Amino acid sequence: MGEQLTVGVEEEFFVVDRHGHLSRHAAKLIDTAEEQDGELQTELTRSQAELATGVCRTHDELLTQLHDLRSALAAAGARRNLRLVPSGAALLPEPDPPAITPNPRYQRMADHFGAMIHQVTTCGCHVHIGIPDAAAGIQVINHTRPWLPILLALTANSPIEHGVDTGYHSWRYRLWTQWPSAGSPPVFSSVDHYESIVNGCLKSGAILDRGMVYWDIRLSEHQPTLEFRISDVAATAEEAVLLAVIVRGLTHMALNTTIQPMDLPNDVLRAQLWRAARDGITGDCPHPHHGVPVPAFTVLNDLLELLKPILRENGDLEFVEKQVAQLTATGGGADRQSRTFERTGRPEDTVDMLAIIPE
């Protein structure tokens, strides 16, 4: 079935104090964490930390790196009475917005976008898949767009923000799409078409640099990869790897197809993504084949049936089946957050449930 595609994952986290409130000391976790394969980085605010795995070929390798990086950050936090929380939105009400990380680019963004910068403080999961070239990336974007809603539903993990249940499984996605360059990518006729839209956004001042192309799938600026940015940070490393190997399978399928991509207008796709953000994996999700909402697990299972030969060839099939069975039994991250919050009425208990325990 061809050479196995490489995969890497970036994850963003909130750093909170022992009470669950956002801390301003995320950089100290990054500076003092034990060195692991991959990288640890600061993010837009002082309350966020990011990890990035190295280039991986197997789900076992990816899972090991994610566990090690998450644990290293969590252990560094524990030494300072801080915790690492994988949630797409901040859980507790805060008296003040989180402070911006002292970085010239981030400060320029804060000055340019004003109050919005604090409304889009969210944590996502980005999956990088190695591709031959930009033209191949455009082909993958066009073919995988219709599956974005189920990828969003799969890791939806942000129903609570500032102590309130929002009624959405992925409130992060609703917040994130306030960025003028965020949301579903259009259908691109060529690499030149892609570049013309990016250049138009730059000329308008709606983005300040190419790193601010925030489409749900984009060509990476600095690596020979395609970056899927649709998802909330996953509640567990296993759920992040599940997303990653499904995305890799989708990319492989798109690179090797001879059929034309589905004709799905961007306005319709945006509407479908709204539904996926509201319902998550235990609700309904528009099916790519007809656009009518059906149980999200039905869409997921139909996708996995398409990808089964690829997943088997990559050695991912057994892992995927095990993780989907787990999700079927427990629900996704958003479901587990909401159940805890509904049971106690205290977002602090949801923080306790989510916080990563060092291994």
Explained architecture:
The structure is a single chain. Helix 1 packs across helix 2, helix 11 packs antiparallel against helix 12 (317-330) and helix 13 (333-344) crosses helix 14 (347-354). The longest helix is centred in the N-terminal third of the chain and has 20 residues, at 59-78. The protein is built from 14 helices and eleven strands. The radius of gyration is 19 Å and the shape is globular. The strands form three sheets. Strands 1, 2, 3, 4, 5, 8 and 9 form a seven-stranded antiparallel β-sheet that branches. Helix content is 46%, strand content 14%. The protein has a single domain, classed as Creatine Kinase, Chain A, domain 2 (2-Layer Sandwich). A hairpin with a 5-residue loop joins strand 2 and strand 3 (48-52). The mean pLDDT is 96. Keywords: ATP-binding, Ligase, Nucleotide-binding.
